[in-house]
Amino acid sequence: MATAVIFPKVSLETDAGTISRWLKEDGATVSQGEALFEIDNDKAAVEVEAPASGTISYVRNAGEDVQVGEVVAHILQSGEQPEAAAKPVAKAAPMTVAANGKSQPAQQSSSARIIATPLARRIAEQQQIDLRNVRGSGPKGRIQKRDVIHLPTAAPKPSPVAGDSPLNAVWLQKDGPGTLVALHGFASDHNAWRGLLAAGRPRARMLAVDLPGHGRSSRTVPADLDAICVMVEQRMAAEGVDEATFVAHSFGAAVAAKLASRGFVRVNALLLISPAGLGPEIRDQFIKGFVAAKQPSSILPWLHELVFDPSLISEAFVRSVVDQRKDDELSGALASLAERYFCDGTQTFSIRPDLERLRIPVRIIAGMKDRIIPFAHCHSLPGRVGLHAFQQCGHMPYLEQPELTLSIVNEMLALGRSDR
């Protein structure tokens, strides 16, 4: 017997909503628990899951206003056929009579409900675009991302010229079937990823970005993660990258999660290594001590805290940090970043809401002996997020276990391509 798919109540403010898009084609085979369609509740895209297994048969189309409790589809069992009367029928446009006596389509009222995707609404709000003046290119005139980002009134798209971005970036690998963007952790830079490359090469070209206040990037201290994301998005645009898989460490992982949830660039898959932003605690003594240390003798003990096996910290690693500390402007920027984002031993931001919103492959690698960010922060992750717990490993899994980390990087690249 067919199972009805009911439009649920997702907002306290209204008893109606819109199917923003079907995630399964009409006539497709679905399994119980699979996401069937998204609802636009003006704040976020909410997925509705299949109540049973079978073949989906639409009753309502994407873009239509639907009342809570209304049947929007049926899930048919083997041998069942959809009733013709239950299928969606295109509605004729209302007609008016012109002065010449000929009928013509009625003009839409200026007070009609604006149909737009949640992402389009978010971009419009951030860029102060009046959606009443935007013509949608989606089904039934639905306003989509491309309709607002190409408007003259929207924030200008960065020109693909390196000098236009405040962030430095280096192509660590220029060949490959896709793109891997790498974001380093706090008080590091793009060179951190060379330890991973010593284990082999990812199956993609690889762009490593210096975050603001790090490496060769601008010494500015952005107000929040969104402001950092804007800079990374500009850098990617300058490099001609509009979609990528991300690998990111610690503070950079928090930036990557926020960037993926913003949706301004397409993130195909996300690998977060020892991510910040999953809980409030962070080791305050390390942050203050590492930022203040300038001599090899004072820097080395703090570097040892980053790893489970201190022998992994090479002399070259120490020298690179010493050289960074010779740049007073860079040291000042790091101190300001620490005060803003890790004030009083507290992570002043959270990426859990961002991870909850994501519908892409996401995995986390965390060292169970991490002395900087507690491994316990990885408890109670969203159900869609996978966890790789590395034993006998500290805060830098990509340095401590590079071969295993690289294999997971390549898995995420493959998942990102298959998920497109």
Please supply descriptive tags for the structure shown above.
alpha/beta, Dihydrolipoamide Transferase, Rossmann fold, 3 domains, seven-stranded mixed sheet
Give a concise summary.
This protein is 27% helix and 20% strand.
Could you characterize what this model shows?
The model is unreliable at 84-111 and 153-163 (pLDDT under 50). This protein folds into three domains: 3-84, OB fold (Dihydrolipoamide Acetyltransferase, E2P), CATH 2.40.50.100; 114-156, Dihydrolipoamide Transferase; 164-418, 3-Layer(aba) Sandwich (Rossmann fold), CATH 3.40.50.1820. The protein is elongated, with a radius of gyration of 25 Å. The chain has helices at residues 118-126, 145-149, 194-197, 225-238, 251-262, 284-292, 296-304, 315-325, 328-341, 352-357, 397-400, 402-418, and strands spanning 3-6, 16-22, 29-30, 35-40, 45-49, 54-58, 65-67, 71-76, 95-97, 103-105, 169-173, 179-183, 205-209, 243-249, 266-273, 362-367, 385-390. The chain is of the alpha/beta class. The longest helix is centred in the C-terminal third of the chain and has 17 residues, at 402-418. Helix 5 links the parallel strand 14 and strand 15 (266-273).
